From TrEMBL:
A biological-process GO annotation: proteolysis
Domain CAAX prenyl protease 2/Lysostaphin resistance protein A-like: 134-231
Presence of the UniProt keyword Transmembrane in the record: yes
TM spans (from-to): 12-34, 46-67, 88-112, 124-147, 168-189, 195-213, 218-239
Domain of life according to the entry: Bacteria
GO molecular function: endopeptidase activity
Key words of the record: Hydrolase, Membrane, Protease, Transmembrane, Transmembrane helix
InterPro entries named in the record: Rce1/LyrA-like_dom
Designated name of the protein: CAAX protease self-immunity protein
Length: 242
């Protein structure tokens, strides 16, 4: 039982990356059956759908794992009224810090890898059928807030501490995998792109990890912030769609 639980802990660390690649591979397979000339390239354009499906699977899996331990996954998002004022102030500080932590590494790496940050962004923004872009863009943003931070910092991080790993090991391992998972959103076989996607969010992931280690009760606020961040990206996608 202990070995099985240990396996589940480590498999959850890589679960999202595996889901991203597996779902994109399936979409590429479908495009191949449809006779597309470059099915893998075509599949990269559908990454919001890939993330949405992966998030739904991840939420179902997390709910099951928490239920097996006699806990409720959804209780993670319960706002604690006794610390509401303090938590709102902390959330405001997080929002202020979030901009440079998320933006600067992204632009800096994109400039190093591609000379022009816009070239990097063009790898991500592709027109989709409008309704697909609207539905997947909005729902992927919402489910990101529910699925991403919890798997790494509400499930994996506490399990690592329970297994005797040090504080910083428990923070760094899930943070590292949260950052690296982005190479699969979408997966492209280009070294410059992989470096950019793999490292652009590492500082942000570590920032989230430290917050969640010190104040896990802030998860509902982090989830809302995460949703809003992704919604802004979804709006860009929708604007480019047809």
């Amino acid at each position: 039982m202990i070995k099985k639980q240990k396996y589940i802990n480590w498999s959850m660390v890589v679960s999202r990356l595996i889901l991203f690649i597996s779902i994109q591979s399936f979409i590429a397979f479908i495009f191949n059956l449809l006779g597309k000339d470059e099915p893998w390239i075509e599949s990269t354009k559908w990454w919001p759908v890939v993330v949405l499906i992966a998030n739904i699977i991840g939420i179902i899996l997390l709910s099951k794992l928490f239920r097996q331990e006699g806990k409720s996954f959804w209780s993670l998002f319960r706002i604690q009224t006794d610390t509401l004022k303090k938590d709102l102030i902390n959330s405001l500080v997080i929002i202020i810090l979030l901009g440079p932590i998320a933006f600067i590494p992204n632009v800096l790496l994109a400039t190093i890898m591609f000379d022009d940050p816009m070239i990097a962004m063009e790898r991500l923004i592709h027109p989709l059928p409008l309704m697909v872009a609207i539905i997947s863009g909005i729902l992927f943003s919402i489910t990101q807030g529910l699925a991403e931070i919890p798997v790494y910092f509400s499930y994996v991080m506490p399990k690592l501490r329970e297994r005797g790993y040090s504080k910083w090991t428990a923070i760094i391992i899930p943070s590292l995998f949260l950052g690296i998972q982005h190479i699969g959103v979408p997966l492209m076989f280009d070294l410059n792109y992989l470096v950019w996607r793999g490292f652009m969010y590492l500082p942000l992931a570590l920032f989230f990890g430290i917050i969640m280690y010190r104040k896990p009760r802030l998860l509902p606020y982090l989830a809302i912030i995460h949703v809003l961040m992704d919604l802004s990206f979804a709006m860009m996608l929708i604007a480019e769609s047809y």
